[in-house]
């Protein structure tokens, strides 16, 4: 795993459905990488690149420490000058705090220079958006989209780039609601939100403001359901992978082991194994039984399962592997113990796993046919039949 913190991480395998040695985050990341359109981006609609979603995929792959080649291609897609300008703005009439911060985190995770990413200085761009209050505010002809999440992400990105401005940190601290949680919306009645609190806590811990993070953590823990999940502040919300993934990150880096373990258990309960359709094996669904938004859900769940903050995610040491859920049936044999079974060298004996997706074989091999062994069985059977017949003949002759 790349960028591992000093906190012990929980690696939850998929039991019998897991590829040998692969963990839930590995197989989820393998599935995620295979969803990249043209191998380098995700889309919000056909032929419509989702830059924010693609950035989340890169961070998730780096957190899992696999899919390095896929993450490199996705980061290169985001670094194309036209993509950067469309995502973060032109830096003059249009400039967006959240995308600038997210893209800077991608650059930092990849070991690239956020001051020269796609010919854009992302750090300077964020600095230009900081108001005297310390808040990062969009420059746009459209309504301002900056919020508590973009503020926390900006603090994280700038801290990694050399140090977050004190005023920006102070603004984040002061944005806390009365109950201790942190909001997403900053220009309305303060309403604590799980995702806003989770990212704010990560940012505050990264800049050494653990005291300010304590109340947020207390509120966050109070929102955890009995199953370990978390929900957003939206009306009729239910426990979901995105909210739980972000919360798990904050809990783990804050040392809240028991609560983080419960959150990871909820996330892995949403992961699709061998009983699911092959196309979704490894994916983490947004909510139980729903594959809507599975790419986004999986992207946000993976760092939570790994237990690493956005302040520490790194591609260093990542492999190109794209793990799959191993659904190979273990070899079984009814051969008498005196006959040594012949194991399938292409099965569960340390060889490559059965391919998934379009290249999967119709059926996995389960053994090697040996004619000599079969004939021994036939001869034994015939001998037994002859013996029974002889016994009956002798009995009738008495």
Which short descriptors sum up this protein?
single chain; 398 residues; mainly alpha; Glycosyltransferase; 2 domains; two-stranded antiparallel sheet; 14 helices; 45% helix; globular; disordered N terminus; disordered C terminus; transmembrane; Prenyltransferase and squalene oxidase repeat-containing protein; membrane
How would you describe what is shown here?
With 398 residues, the chain is mainly α. It folds into 2 domains: 15-306, Glycosyltransferase; 368-397. It contains 14 helices and 2 strands. A two-stranded antiparallel ribbon has the order 1-2. A hairpin with a 2-residue loop joins strand 1 (43-45) and strand 2. The longest helix is centred in the last third of the chain and has 27 residues, at 371-397. The radius of gyration is 27 Å and the shape is globular. It starts with 23 loop residues before the first helix and ends with a helix. Residues 1-20 and 331-398 have low confidence and may be disordered.
List the helices and strands and how they pair.
Blueprint: H1 24-33, E1 43-45, E2 48-49, H2 51-64, H3 68-79, H4 81-88, H5 97-109, H6 122-129, H7 148-160, H8 166-174, H9 194-206, H10 210-222, H11 241-253, H12 257-269, H13 294-306, H14 371-397
Antiparallel strand pairs: 1-2
Helix pairs in contact: 1-2, 1-13, 2-3, 2-5, 2-13, 5-6, 5-7, 7-9, 9-10, 9-11, 11-12, 11-13
Instruction: Calculate Rg over CA atoms.
Output: 27 Å
Provide the CATH topology of the largest domain.
Glycosyltransferase
Helix/strand class: mainly alpha
Largest sheet strand order:
1-2
Task: Give the overall silhouette.
Answer: globular
Low-confidence stretches: 1-20, 331-398
Q: How many strands, what sense, and barrel or not for the largest sheet?
A: 2 strands, antiparallel
Give the end-to-end Cα distance, rounded to a whole number of Å: 79 Å
How many individual domains? 2
Q: What is the CATH C-level name of the largest domain?
A: Mainly Alpha
CATH architecture call of the largest domain: Alpha/alpha barrel
Strand content: under 5%
The helix/strand order is HEEHHHHHHHHHHHHH
What is the tally of beta strands? 2
Query: What's the overall average pLDDT, rounded?
Result: 83
Tally of helical segments? 14
Assembly state of the chains shown: single chain
Helix content: 40-55%
InterPro entries: Terpenoid_cyclase/PrenylTrfase
Keywords: Membrane, Signal, Transmembrane, Transmembrane helix
Signal peptide: 1-16
Transmembrane segments: 372-390
């Amino acid at each position: 795993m790349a960028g591992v913190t000093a906190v012990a991480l929980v690696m939850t395998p998929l039991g019998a459905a897991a590829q040998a040695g692969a963990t839930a985050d590995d197989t989820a990341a393998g599935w995620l990488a295979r969803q990249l359109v043209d191998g380098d981006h995700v889309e919000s609609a056909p032929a419509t690149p989702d830059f924010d979603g693609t950035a989340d995929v890169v961070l998730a792959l780096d957190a899992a420490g696999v899919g390095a080649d896929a993450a490199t291609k996705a980061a290169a897609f985001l670094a194309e000058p036209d993509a950067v300008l469309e995502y973060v703005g032109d830096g003059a009439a249009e400039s967006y705090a959240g995308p600038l911060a997210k893209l800077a985190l991608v650059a930092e995770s990849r070991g690239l220079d956020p001051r020269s990413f796609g010919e854009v200085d992302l750090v300077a761009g964020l600095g230009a958006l900081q108001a005297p209050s310390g808040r990062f505010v969009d420059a746009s002809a459209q309504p301002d989209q900056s919020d508590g999440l973009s503020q926390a992400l900006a603090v994280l990105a700038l801290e990694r780039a050399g140090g977050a401005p004190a005023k920006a940190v102070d603004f984040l601290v002061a944005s806390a609601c009365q109950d201790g949680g942190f909001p997403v919306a900053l220009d309305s009645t303060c309403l604590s939100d799980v995702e806003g609190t989770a990212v704010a806590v990560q940012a505050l811990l990264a800049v050494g403001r653990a005291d300010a993070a304590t109340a947020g953590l207390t509120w966050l823990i109070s929102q955890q359901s009995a199953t370990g999940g978390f929900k957003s502040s939206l009306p009729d919300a239910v426990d979901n992978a995105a909210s739980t993934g972000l919360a798990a990150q904050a809990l783990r880096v804050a040392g809240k082991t028991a609560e983080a373990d419960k959150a990871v258990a909820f996330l892995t309960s949403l992961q699709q194994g061998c009983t699911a359709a092959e196309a979704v094996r490894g994916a983490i669904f947004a909510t139980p039984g729903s594959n809507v938004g599975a790419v986004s859900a999986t992207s946000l769940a993976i760092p939570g399962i790994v237990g690493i903050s956005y302040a520490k995610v790194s591609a260093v040491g990542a492999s190109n592997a794209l793990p799959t859920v191993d659904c190979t049936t273990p070899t079984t044999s009814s051969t008498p113990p005196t006959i040594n079974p012949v194991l399938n060298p292409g099965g569960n004996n340390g060889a490559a796993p059965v391919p998934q997706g379009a290249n999967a074989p119709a059926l996995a091999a389960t053994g090697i046919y040996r004619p000599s062994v079969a004939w021994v069985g036939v001869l034994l059977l015939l001998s037994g039949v002859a013996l029974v017949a002889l016994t009956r003949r002798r009995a009738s002759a008495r």
